[in-house]
Amino acid sequence: MMSLSAMCLGLFVNPPLSPQYTLWNFLPKNLFEQFRRIANFYFLIIFLVQVIVDTPTSPVTSGLPLFFVITVTAIKQGYEDWLRHRADNEVNKSNVFVVENAKQVRKESEKIKVGDIVEVKADETFPCDLIFLASSSTDGTCYVTTASLDGESNFKTHYAVRDTTVLCTDEAIDTLTATIELCPSCTLSLGPENLLLKGATLKNTKKIYGVAVYTGMETKMALNYQGKSQKRSAVEKSINAFLIVYLCILLGKATVCTTLKYVWQSNPFNDEPWYNEKTKKERETFKVLRMFTDFLSFMVLFNFIIPVSMYVTVEMQKFLGSFFISWDKEMFDEEIQEGALVNTSDLNEELGQVSTGCVCICLDGDVDGSALPARSPCSGIPHAPLGPDREELFLRALCLCHTVQIKEADQVDGLMAHPERKYTYISSSPDEIALVKGAEKYGFTFLGLENNFMKIRNQKNETEMYQLLHVLNFDPVRRRMSVIVRTSTGKLLLFCKGADSSIFPRVQQEEIQQTKVHVDRNAMDGYRTLCVAFKELTEKEYDRIDRQLNEAKMALQDREEKMAKVFDDTEADMHLIGATAVEDRLQEQLAETIEALHAAGMKVWVLTGDKMETAKSTCYACRLFQTSTELLELTARTVGESERKEDRLHELLLEYHKKSWTLSQEYGLIIDGSTLSLILNPSQDSGSSNYKSIFLQICLKCTAVLCCRMAPLQKAQIVRMVKNTKGSPITLSIGDGANDVSMILEAHVGIGIKGKEGRQASRNSDYAVPKFKHLRKLLLAHGHLYYVRIAHLVQYFFYKNLCFILPQFLYQFFCGFSQQPLYDAAYLTMYNICFTSLPILAYSLLEQHISIDTLTSDPQLYMKVSDNAMLQWRPFLYWTFLGAFEGLVFFFGVYFLFQNSSLEDNGKVFGNWTFGTIVFTVLVFTVTLKLALDTRFWTWMNHFVIWGSLAFYVFFSFFWGGVIWPFLKQQRMYFVFAHMLTSVSTWLAIILLIFISLFPEILLIVLKNIKEKNHQRLPSSGTSTIFMLSQTSSNHSFSWSE
């Protein structure tokens, strides 16, 4: 029996992670979520009051709009959740093969249990976390890509458990008996190289067998899953603020009318006229109860001032408007045959409000493996112990010190096959592939690994064989990797390559200086640099290293620490051979996009894991830093490594804070991860609680900020820090890998870049675009227009409802505060649902007050709507006063018309329902024509809904008043509308009142056009901020010197 040192208990399946609802909880949970909105809950209360209390209007007037809003919103949310369920089922219901009784059994992936032996074939995804038992490869290896986990499309090598590599058939693997224990008696040790994670994909290997150790919510993918927090846009917050104002207006109106009613009824004749005596029950009712009931009745009468239908219109506008982003042909990428993707339609308008964003400029994922001539040669060692030709030693090191594998013939995803070569290089690092191809260009070709022998062809076309004894894999702490090989003559060699900071301390110091000059120069020019070293081992030294490595690999306690110590001891006293340089190419139009974001008033922050010199050069290349920009540096180099580093940091912060207030000079800030840790997590006794405040003030004064050597957690911390600053700026993050997910989820708006790499970032983002350059149109055009549209929609809804209810309020002063409705119940119900809803919906989807080409080419226009400019209190008050003015015109204009007791030639007198219908007719035509005046971009659909809505109102009024409806108790609107239009005075009054109501708006438009012609200047605005993580597509080069 074999005992594996891992622990896994319980039988877990793969539950869906993303859906919010199930079939059973959808109705109660969705209703709960919807009635958390203040407007929905308010209308529910009003509806219940109408049902319980004798109110002047029918419960249908509130219940039908509320039912419509709840139903449409539920359908939208149910559809979006169904899509999430479908996406989960594609994974959970996929078929896998499990070995049972020496036979393959087909199962759904969600039914895999811990202990099942699973067979996975090439290009299939691992359905759970597996311990790698055996492979179709004789050496017990397999290659996987983790694109969906960490954005890396390069191949990673995994190794089967040593004692199970021979079990490579169904019959053999079925004989395995093993125990997974918490406290093993210990026979085998397992490491990360034996673990195959759920979500990774098997590549370049026909099949593998693995035992399920973690399934369902216990897999690493599930444990790392970070649920999306509910993001609310600035527009929604403004709506809630305006809603409170209108709720106060409603309460004020109801209070005034209730008070004046009892003042009016203080006169006995008014309280109980001879023609309307009170019943005994009414006389015995407590006065306080009557006052409360009257207050509720007035609340019901005026409740339409709260625009509940606005919510469903906003939902439809966001949902339908998101398709315009997906349909944008200019944001379609021919290379990956995909366009932009909208995952969260609730934040469309937020794209036009970015004031501080975190924009991650990502690697394209493509690697150009051709070796370029070095811009400056990298030095070789003064003398080489192995032979006269140091150049050949350098090239041999590049051919041997790597983890590159050979794949025959096929084109591999994310890799570029050489047209003249019948094989393709695959590796976990694109740099390694490029360096191996570069060595091939100079005569040394890596031919592959076979039976632990590495074959290379030298410049003389001779094949050299090297036995691969050990690979000391790269890790981010050591920042280097090594191989130990035996030559055909029996010599033992160690080759090592890594970052200059990890290689220089381990070589002869007299060999460093010349190479260091070239490395620093290449780093300043934007190249990623690696140094290459070697040493010769004796048999005795190798035996000791081999024994120590095997002991460390078998250790069950502190294995990683023991391995690190052996690596550290082995990679010492080496000789420096030379250095390589890797050139990073920026994505197309990246610099132009960043310039446009700057011109739009945004500040751009770069968050990257690269070292400072490389990141700084990239920032200059993408024009984030200008030659005139003075750089303020907060790094380990300036702060120092002494015990006083926190004091030194405080001094630098104060110095830079004083500098940054100089208006005549542009500043850029550079900070690294270690210094950021001191600022965000100061020691308790440092007295540095204000570090963060000073640092943030400096950042906001700089035109750009570069954060290098950043960990994923630090990226999210920076975004959170900026989000919580005074003024709550809108943040945006954009990245392409799983390491960017936490930052994308933290920002107000998260954008993922699809590219050719993993889709973890794009799946967790609110929006996904194929290339970084598409961010320009997404923000400057789509974001700008979406914000303008929805801001106008919100203001228009409050305005038209105030126009609607103000005449009803004024009418109470002329009817003894009797709660008599001014409008018919059908008009009350259909005003927001049918008569005025479609024109504003079409406007909010199609309006282009400025053409898209102009918005894209002139980024400064973005600043005109930044900081939620159209939903501030000043424009809100303008719309409110405009609604109040027009409501006064509607009511008193018709009131003065009715001063003439006879409006017909035959002397007949119009009644109160005719009065209300005239007011309502003027209202519908005025608010609709107001929207027509605001429309700058006319389409056939605008014409259809605007003029069609007016025609529908006229048709409905004729139809509603032309039939005696059997289900109505009173036929109060019978023939009213048709009779009203027989009066010439009514026609003239309607036309005149519409013109008077719209005259201020017409005058304002004329004056605005004159002003724009005289002053062709754009207003300046406060700056905004965007952050970025710098990554790029790579072109690799290397060199050596004689």
Give a description of the structure:
The protein is α/β, with parallel strands linked by helices. The protein has 35 helices and 32 strands. The strands form seven sheets. A nine-stranded mixed β-sheet has the order 14-32-23-22-21-20-19-18-17. Strands 12, 13, 24, 28, 29, 30 and 31 form a seven-stranded mixed β-sheet that branches. A six-stranded antiparallel β-sheet has the order 3-2-4-11-5-9. A hairpin with a 5-residue loop joins strand 18 and strand 19. Helix 7 runs parallel beside helix 27 (774-811) and helix 31 runs antiparallel to helix 32. The chain is elongated, with a radius of gyration of 37 Å. 44% of the residues are buried.
Biggest pleated sheet: 9 strands, mixed
Task: Provide the spatial order of strands within the biggest beta sheet.
Answer: 14-32-23-22-21-20-19-18-17
Averaging pLDDT over every residue, what do you get?
79
Number of DSSP-assigned strands: 32
What are the SSEs and their pairings?
Elements (H helix, E strand, L loop, with lengths): L1 E3 L21 H9 L3 H15 L7 H33 L2 E6 L2 E6 L8 E5 L7 E7 L5 E6 H4 L1 E8 L10 H5 L3 E3 L14 E2 L4 E3 L3 E8 L5 H4 L10 H31 L3 H4 L8 H5 L2 H16 L6 H18 L14 E2 L13 E4 L7 E6 L17 H11 L4 E4 L14 E4 L3 H12 L3 E6 L2 E5 L5 E10 L7 E7 L5 E7 L1 H4 L8 H13 L2 E11 L1 H16 L4 H12 L4 E11 L4 H10 L3 E5 L4 H10 L8 E5 L1 H4 L5 H15 L7 E6 H8 L10 H11 L2 E5 L3 H12 L8 E4 L5 H6 L2 E5 L6 H5 L2 E3 L4 H38 L13 H11 L1 H10 L5 H6 L15 H25 L14 H23 L5 H22 L14 H5 L3 H31 L10 E4 L4 E7 L3
Parallel strand pairs: 1-8, 13-24, 13-28, 13-31, 14-32, 24-31, 25-26, 26-27, 28-29, 29-30
Antiparallel strand pairs: 2-3, 2-4, 4-11, 5-9, 5-11, 6-7, 6-10, 12-30, 15-16, 17-18, 18-19, 19-20, 20-21, 21-22, 22-23, 23-32
